[in-house]
Amino acid sequence: MTLGSILHDMWDIFVKFYIGEGLLVTGVGYTLLLSAIAVFFGTILGSLLAVGKMSRIKPLQYIITAFVEIMRGTPALLQLYIAYFIVPMMLTNLNPTPIACVAIGLTLNSAAYVSEIIRSGINAVDKGQTEAARALGLTSRTTMTKVVMPQAVRNILPALGNEFITIIKETSLASNFFVGELMTTYAIIKGVTFNTVPTLIDIGIIYFVMTFTLSKLIGVAERRMKAGA
What we know:
The chain is mainly α.
């Protein structure tokens, strides 16, 4: 197989399955959907975990720490397999679909990392800011919401953007459950065309375009936050 034939096959696959049948578009849609769900709900859950870990309730701290360390210390694919088999057993009345199980697994994985991002962002704020706010008579809640968090957001948002990029790439693991994202699309196209290398390169280019575009948008947002600081 020559370079010319590979490029020719890449273009043919792109035209037929992206522009023509729209299969690659569907794969991109499912990939972005899974990523958005995981990061959105992972951020909510991760925020709660971060607050719980920073609380003074020791048992809660131990439970959250154990969860975070387990999720960060085990492969994401293993977590997706556990979610795929365990979630239907726990939600028998709802009969969750494979994509819902995978989304839950990715959300829990993202929450563990996001909790540490948020906790680190809050801890990066100068302690003197908190002490000054409390000395002025502000409550702990008001100090957190009005003083600490606005400053912590500048540290948190870029890291959350990087988490989004990571999750986009991790959705490729969902192909093991054939849920329709890009790597599942690759398996379908390969089965139809029996053309492995050009299909893989096409899929790789699409992943790169998504993550590169997102990284540039994150860079723009980060520069604007620094300029407005």
